[in-house]
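Customer escalation, tier 2.

The customer says the design service returned an amino acid string that "doesn't look like it belongs to this structure." They asked us to rerun it and document both sides in this ticket. The original structure tokens are below, unchanged.
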């Protein structure tokens, strides 16, 4: 069994971070979102991975390499522009051959991995198996309609009037029968070959399409709010580990991970928090659900429920929360200006100023 991992896409909802970085490489608890997916594939016993790459191909290839660090063998498959998930299957035909495969969206996050799902698929081997979860607003997702017995009878891509609250999670399992389906469909109104249309083609052809509804934690990390929520979920499961330096005037409370070379000076850190190697926190407070990457400086500031990427500094700015701060960023106080009122008043005006 092989895997097809989608790592293209512009990541427009995470801009400006993704103007200079692939969205799949934005870190959660100081590890790229994509790496969690690759680790879950390896844990499920899959070793051959085809990775669909686009404009950020060079950055993805530098980060992942040949895949050996994850126990994988990675083959890169370029996609000139994002033309839909089914298009990714189409261009990966040579790599996939006649093997069954998992298609995994590289910016998706599933707590607990996919080992159970892969084992279930291998045991029963339907033509396709999809993963579903209930969402508050299904209009932004592919949506499944089930009959009374729980059988999939229809799929829609981002419907205006959803027929259910069951959204497709970014993990799909297929036998080679899907290759005929992706060749049979036409581009949608978005100009893309939709995987929902390909699966609907299988349903209409009376293929064996099954679903698993998950109750656990899943996120499409496509926007800042979801990134912060995934960061919170991962930090919740971390164990305390202090490998850096904490001076006598500081305290680290609860589940704090302090990497080697990091220093805490005259500060208070309340977990769950992870602080990367070489980072210095001084005269500051770092509160729960915060990830600070390597080689950062936090001075005379307060930081909570946030993600700070590598080589950034936050200096003397009071309190920051619910924020995503990119690489090589400097956050400093604005220069003070004299307090004054500037007025342009017409004839016979009356003005009251509270000083």
């Amino acid at each position: 069994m092989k895997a097809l991992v989608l790592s293209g896409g512009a990541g427009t909802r995470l801009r400006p971070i993704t103007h200079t970085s692939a969205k799949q490489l934005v870190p959660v608890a100081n590890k790229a979102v994509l790496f969690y997916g690759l680790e879950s594939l390896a844990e499920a016993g899959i070793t051959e991975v085809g990775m669909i790459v686009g404009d950020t191909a060079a950055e993805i290839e530098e980060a992942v390499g040949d895949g050996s660090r994850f126990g994988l063998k990675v083959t890169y498959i370029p996609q000139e522009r994002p033309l839909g998930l089914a298009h990714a299957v189409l261009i990966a035909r040579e790599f996939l051959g006649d093997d069954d495969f998992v298609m995994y969206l590289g910016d998706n996050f599933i707590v607990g991995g996919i080992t159970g799902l892969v084992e279930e698929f291998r045991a029963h081997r339907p033509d396709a198996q999809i993963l579903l979860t209930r969402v508050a607003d299904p209009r932004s997702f592919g949506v499944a309609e089930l009959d009374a017995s729980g059988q999939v009878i229809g799929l829609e891509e981002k419907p205006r009037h959803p027929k259910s609250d069951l959204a497709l999670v970014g993990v799909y399992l297929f036998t080679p029968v899907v290759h005929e389906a992706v060749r049979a469909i036409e581009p949608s109104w978005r100009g893309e070959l939709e995987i929902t249309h390909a699966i609907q083609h299988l349903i209409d052809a009376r293929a064996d399409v099954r679903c698993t509804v998950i109750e656990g934690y899943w996120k499409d990390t496509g926007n800042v709010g979801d990134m912060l929520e995934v960061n919170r979920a991962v930090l919740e499961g971390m164990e305390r580990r202090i490998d850096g330096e904490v001076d006598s005037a500081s305290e680290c409370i609860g589940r704090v991970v302090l990497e080697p070379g990091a220093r805490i000076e005259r500060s208070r850190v309340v977990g769950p928090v992870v602080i990367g190697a070489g980072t210095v926190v001084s005269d500051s407070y770092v509160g729960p659900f915060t990830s600070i990457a390597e080689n950062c400086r936090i001075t005379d500031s307060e930081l909570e429920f946030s993600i700070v990427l590598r080589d950034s500094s936050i200096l003397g700015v009071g309190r920051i929360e619910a924020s995503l701060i990119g690489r090589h960023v400097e956050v400093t106080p604005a220069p003070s200006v004299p307090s004054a009122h500037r007025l342009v008043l017409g004839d016979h005006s009356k003005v009251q100023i509270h000083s």
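Tier 2 assessment: The sequence is consistent with the input. The first helix runs from residue 33 to 43. The radius of gyration is 24 Å. Sent an explanation to the customer and offered a walkthrough call.
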